[in-house]
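SEQUENCE-TO-STRUCTURE ENTRY
===========================
Question of interest: how does this chain fold, as expressed in backbone structure tokens?
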Amino acid sequence: MQRNRPPSPQTVNVLRALAADPARWRYGYDLGAEVNLKSGSLYPILVRLADRGLLETAWEPSAGSRPPRHLYRLTGDGRDFVAALTAARSDRSVTHPRRRLSEA
């Protein structure tokens, strides 16, 4: 059964980081450092996004003593999803602007 709840702020941050250069393959470690998530939070997000068809994954072959590494980038559906998220958030901010405490 698929859930229709909105993505978590952490998931949105990962998607936006990937959307900054959607054609570029990214390492999980670099994404985690960019969005300030530890591996225990980041990798389950990446797995869920890949399972939903929003991320493409690949293995980079090992080089010398370095083991193979997993790479991630947005699929076409992932790019559309990020665009829809951005549009939905901008619509909400226009219709429901946040008030400052001094205005309340």
Observations:
- The chain has one domain: 9-84.
